[in-house]
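Appendix C reproduces, verbatim, an entry submitted by the partner laboratory led by Prof. M.T., so that reviewers can inspect both the input and the predicted structure.
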Amino acid sequence: MSITATELKENLSKYLLLSATEDVYITKNGKVISKLCNPFRDRVEIAKSLFGSVPATMTLEEAKEERLGKI
């Protein structure tokens, strides 16, 4: 999403909430001058991508051994 600096000033709380889920680009005189984003979103996406990567039938010990190449 792209907004003007004036729009950001007038509705800061709205865009702070919105930045939790998407990047907000702030423009001035038609040029992007800043980006408002959630610093933790990348970590959450990485964690979500890991769900299901180990079969439910595998034990924690088996997963560790496979990870370390002992199997």
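DSSP finds four helices and three strands in the chain. Additional entries are available on request from the coordinating office.
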